[in-house]
Write a structure and sequence with these properties.
There is one protein chain. The chain has twelve helices and 22 strands. Strand 1, helix 1 and strand 2 form a beta-alpha-beta unit. With 425 residues, the chain is of the alpha/beta class. The chain has a domain of 252 residues: Carbamate kinase, CATH 3.40.1160. The strands form five sheets. An eight-stranded mixed sheet has the order 3-6-2-1-9-11-12-10, with helices on both faces. A four-stranded mixed sheet has the order 5-4-7-8. The longest helix has 25 residues. Helix 1 crosses helix 3. It is globular. 45% of the residues are buried. Pfam families: AA_kinase, ACT_9. It catalyses: L-aspartate + ATP = 4-phospho-L-aspartate + ADP. Catalyzes the phosphorylation of the beta-carboxyl group of aspartic acid with ATP to yield 4-phospho-L-aspartate, which is involved in the branched biosynthetic pathway leading to the biosynthesis of amino acids lysine, threonine, isoleucine and methionine.
Length: 425
């Protein structure tokens, strides 16, 4: 008997019919001889609706109380799903994140998992039950307060439980048939990937691919938990994410030269203008940003002007952190010694990802040629061993993604990509 952890996103359990459909799929896995643990997100847009409601009551809701409110969404899903499974003649028990043993740090709204002690879950499945766990939530190790893991945190909950339970596989059910070579909403001819390595998936997730959360993939790689990304709306095989290639029939699936094209329009650019070009200035800027608990992405420093000895430093960060970054830098303006700040939230990032870049010197040239032919102007460039990222105008992103996708022969022969639920999560 194997142990399978399944995760179902909000679009999969958006209404009563969706919950009943998910219940049937879970029961099928149980009837196939598996022990089953299912992790669920809140129904449809429940989380967004709860956030809107909180902001109507208080423009700046306290983190602790917001977490208490938001966790209600997943608790509704888990209870309804357990009822639906019992209606099908199987025993099911629902558990909150804290009851499931998900232990986190004390940072509200974006807590990180410290440990998972799934004693109650193990006991439940050993007794023949299907365990249903509320995703996205845990309990603080220090304060014992309820915490949430940030958007997409149910993926991380599922992988963390799979690791703690030594599961055979973690199945992530969403509203697309797997991981595609580009967002199917932007590129209709995007192709489904049969297998992708943890490394390539990490780069895609960090670059804006929304089908899997970066933290989820990172956790899976650390504990070597295979992930199978599938649609809850179809019975098709999805995408395997693992350290080793999968075998289909008698053939092993080979690593593609290019895994895909990702894009992200949720970032903004801050330019610190007139920074003295001397040791320690960049450190002062990024220490200020770090002290404000803001994550940054791309960084570019211009060559200093010989006449003034001043330079400009630009970096990208989430739009949601833009105001906080500007305030933190302005507060420390005298200490850093810059002239002014520029803020731009009308940008987009396009990234090309693939392990084959390491051994194919023409990839970079082809990438920039495709953007040039599409008339896309580049503002920032960042690279890693298996990724090239550029920042452009937000309006140029869809055309840029399609141009790069076609240039690298990633287009399928037909409109293969289907988005069943409309969100891609």
């Amino acid at each position: 008997m194997g142990l399978v952890v399944q995760k179902y996103g909000g679009s999969s359990v958006a209404d009563a019919e969706g919950i009943k459909r998910v219940a049937k799929r879970i029961v099928e896995a149980k009837q196939n001889g598996n022990q089953v643990v299912a992790v669920v997100s809140a129904m449809g847009d429940t989380t967004d609706e709860l956030i809107d409601l909180a902001e109507q009551v208080s423009p700046m809701p306290a983190g602790r109380e917001l977490d208490m409110l938001l966790t209600a969404g997943e608790r509704i899903s888990m209870a309804l799903l357990a009822m639906a499974i019992k209606k099908l003649g199987h025993e099911a028990q629902s558990f909150t994140g804290s009851q499931a043993g998900v232990i986190t740090d004390s940072v509200h709204n974006k807590a990180r998992i410290i440990d998972v002690t799934p004693g109650r879950i193990k006991t439940s499945v050993d007794e023949g039950n299907i365990a249903i766990v509320a995703g996205f939530q845990g309990v603080s190790q220090d304060t014992k307060d309820i915490t949430t893991l940030g958007r997409g945190g149910s993926d991380t909950t599922a992988v963390a439980l799979a690791a703690a339970l030594d599961a055979d596989v973690c199945e992530i059910y969403t509203d697309v048939d797997g991981v595609f070579t580009a967002d199917p909403r932007v590129v209709k001819k995007a192709r489904k990937i049969d297998w992708i390595s943890f490394e390539d998936m990490l780069e895609l997730a960090a670059s804006g691919s929304k089908v899997l959360l970066h933290r989820c993939v990172e956790y899976a790689r650390r504990y070597n938990i295979p992930i199978h990304v599938r649609s809850s709306f179809s019975g098709l095989q999805g995408t395997w994410v693992s350290s080793e290639p999968i075998t289909q029939g008698d053939k092993q699936v080979e690593q593609a030269l290019i895994s895909g094209v990702a894009h992200d329009t949720s970032e903004a650019k801050v330019t610190v203008v007139g920074v003295p070009d001397k040791p320690g200035e960049a450190a002062s800027i990024f220490r200020t940003i770090a002290d404000a608990e803001i994550n940054i992405d791309m960084v570019v420093q211009n060559v200093s002007a010989a006449s003034t000895g001043l330079t400009d430093i630009s970096f990208t960060l989430p739009k949601t952190e833009g105001r906080k970054a500007i305030d933190a830098l302005e507060k420390n303006k005298a200490g850093i010694g810059f002239d002014s700040l520029r803020y731009d939230d009308q940008i987009g990032k396009i990234s090309l990802v693939g392990a084959g870049m390491k051994t194919n010197p023409g990839v970079t040239a082809d990438f920039f040629t495709a953007l040039s032919d599409a008339g896309v102007n580049i503002e920032l460039i960042s690279t890693s061993e298996i990724r090239i990222s550029v920042v452009t105008r937000a309006d140029d992103v869809p055309e840029a993604v399609r141009a790069v996708h076609s240039a690298f022969g990633l287009d399928s022969d037909s409109d293969e990509a289907v988005v069943y639920g409309g969100t891609g999560r």
